[in-house]
């Protein structure tokens, strides 16, 4: 079976690129928190189905063997655990930021909230990167219903069940 590699894919609601982060539905109920993953590659199979390789992020409560309790509310753990999935499983786009970018995002969000009085529904996140890694849209305050912004500054070995001192696959 041969694969035709793609740089991006257009889903009805938006365009997704390799290295974008996405949410994947985890259950049938709306209360179920989605899984978070990063797109590693996109390809089209001979049958015409578009598939993605997803590198999974773990929530601290999902990771086995971790006894730390000093995690942030929206913190994720990067892993090298990956699977191939259909693009049909993708629910929404999200943003996984490093510690510095996450702090900057929240500081900017708070200052914007003070400036306009109420921040409900606004996002100050850049657009998707193109092939060269440059962002296609400038940073702006664009309307967004519920931005998914997460922090990731630690790695997790899903096989050994332990935190890593540093990770290079965020």
From TrEMBL:
One of its GO terms (molecular function) is chromatin binding. PROSITE patterns: BAH. GO terms for cellular component: chromatin silencing complex. Residues 14-167 form the BAH domain. It comes from the Eukaryota. One of its GO terms (biological process) is heterochromatin formation. It holds the Pfam family BAH. PANTHER family: BROMO ADJACENT HOMOLOGY DOMAIN-CONTAINING 1 PROTEIN. This is Bromo adjacent homology domain-containing 1 protein. It comes from Geodia barretti (Barrett's horny sponge). The lineage of its organism: Eukaryota, Metazoa, Porifera, Demospongiae, Heteroscleromorpha.
